[in-house]
Amino acid sequence: MASTWFALAALTAAGITNAAYSIATTSDIKQTAANVAWDLLQYYNGNETGQTPGILPGPPPAGDYYWWESGAMWGTLIDYWKYTGDSSYNDIITQAMLWQVGPDEDYMPPNYTASLGNDDQGFWGMSAMLAAENGFPDPPEKEPQWLALAQAVFNTQADPQRHDSTCGGGLRWQIYLSNNGYDYKNSIANGCFFNLGARLARYTGNQTYADWAETTWNWMRSVGFMDDDYNIYDGGHVQNNCTDINRAQFSYNNAVFLLGAAYMYNYTNGSDTWKQRTTALVDATLKTFFPDNIAYEIACEEHMSCTTDMLSFKGYLHRWLATATQVAPFLADTVLPVLQTSAEAAVATCTGGSNGRTCGFKWSTKAYDGTYGAGQQMNVLGAVSSLLVQEAKPPLTNSTGGTSKGDVNAGSHSDSSRGELRELTAGDKAGASILTIVILVSAVGTFGWMSTGV
Ligand SMILES: *[C@@H]1O[C@H](CO)[C@@H](O)[C@H](O)[C@H]1NC(C)=O
Ligand SMILES: *[C@@H]1O[C@H](CO)[C@@H](O)[C@H](O)[C@H]1NC(C)=O
Ligand SMILES: *[C@@H]1O[C@H](CO)[C@@H](O)[C@H](O)[C@H]1NC(C)=O
Ligand SMILES: *[C@@H]1O[C@H](CO)[C@@H](O)[C@H](O)[C@H]1NC(C)=O
Ligand SMILES: *[C@@H]1O[C@H](CO)[C@@H](O)[C@H](O)[C@H]1NC(C)=O
Ligand SMILES: *[C@@H]1O[C@H](CO)[C@@H](O)[C@H](O)[C@H]1NC(C)=O
Ligand SMILES: *[C@@H]1O[C@H](CO)[C@@H](O)[C@H](O)[C@H]1NC(C)=O
């Protein structure tokens, strides 16, 4: 009797365990990542007849996803390929990333003008940079090349037109004067620029990029968007000289800066300054965003007031912490155990939906929470695939095997004001105002309890 009961109990337990993914071995990690990637791509139909290559359904109100998130998804899938070796999606990644370059090959396609921020452009630029760094197959010669695309994004953002003197410098959030949010300078726009600068410096060895990264970091500190304790706040308005700081903290801000800092540490051959900055920012990030060592989007997760955008931040957090340990190996002992614990919680949420394996968002509950979307899948994909970071090659440079062709002048022929000249359609305007409403609502939602009294 007793032995039968135990056998049954063991079977039941096994049944329950099998319902969730395993990440116990390298082959489990690859299998899990493959399934999560497949489920992620169910949100993408850009490779079907009559659809637009490169984009998830959107931007709102046409679908849930703003343009930037698609750029982020291709980066997630490039990392997936790098970590697992599964090249099943490489062709659609390449098609997507080339379709969206825009007429000046700088990731400013006119279709998305109404919601085109420096951060949106920056996310596509960082995915192009990632392709160059990982030796992702180079596009045919006649097509734009990964490194040149990253340089084009960087160069358009380094242009004096994008850096006015309000708030003592820095990039505005939106690129075009006509967009809501043009009067806002924020951490993510400057973080993408910083990150690209640091990575271009390391890849090409050109100090100019590093100088821009240094300037951007110093500006973030001077304006108080990054405080003495390495908290990073969302941003502030130019009409207030950026002193009306929105104190909401989002994990992608920390992630984008800590990865850039780790690259600067590497580029400077392990300088004390960048070692100290990287260490402090990583420590602050683990403290704020990993309670109990599980990723937590502190500004919106408790009450599930996260927007579609915010539902994807944990993936960048995991991926960029992982990559940081490649270029700043001293971080590995602190960071990797946390990423492991967090990833275990992440996969425990993937038991939902009709397929029984849809991933949720509230990882700390270790159970499916009823939500689903490209963000949720992308987060888990990033967390699981980057568990293989120690088996992966570190990011390449031009002198260590990188083959992507650059162009230091890429983007310099871009007409930064094209958005002004082009008449906005009613659809564009609706898109822009919805964006603002979402931002206002989320700012109110998060401020209610986050504000420290500014
Ligand atoms: C689009 O890509 C997905 C994922 O690779 C694939 O399953 C699907 O067959 C493709 N669709 C077309 C029309 O090529
Ligand atoms: C822009 O929109 C048009 C019309 O929907 C579409 O044909 C084209 O592929 C889009 N281009 C990009 C870069 O999204
Ligand atoms: C990158 O390497 C190639 C081949 O060695 C060289 O021709 C090129 O000048 C290098 N580019 C930079 C920016 O260093
Ligand atoms: C370094 O980058 C800057 C900024 O893009 C560019 O103007 C300069 O020509 C580059 N220098 C070299 C040696 O490639
Ligand atoms: C605006 O902010 C910058 C950066 O904090 C500061 O250097 C500058 O003095 C401020 N200007 C005014 C007019 O307060
Ligand atoms: C890093 O070290 C290399 C090799 O000694 C040197 O060529 C390079 O200039 C150094 N880089 C910096 C930013 O100091
Ligand atoms: C820079 O990164 C490489 C990996 O690309 C690593 O081997 C090297 O140790 C790093 N440099 C420092 C100073 O940590």
TrEMBL record:
Residues 1-19 form the signal peptide. InterPro entries: 6-hairpin_glycosidase_sf, Glyco_hydro_76, Mannan-1_6-alpha_mannosidase. The keyword Signal applies. Keywords: Glycoprotein, Glycosidase, Hydrolase, Membrane, Signal, Transmembrane, Transmembrane helix. The keyword Transit peptide does not apply. It comes from the Eukaryota. It is an enzyme of class 3 (hydrolase). Pfam families: Glyco_hydro_76. PANTHER family: MANNAN ENDO-1,6-ALPHA-MANNOSIDASE DCW1. This is Mannan endo-1,6-alpha-mannosidase. It comes from Parathielavia appendiculata. The lineage of its organism: Eukaryota, Fungi, Dikarya, Ascomycota, Pezizomycotina.
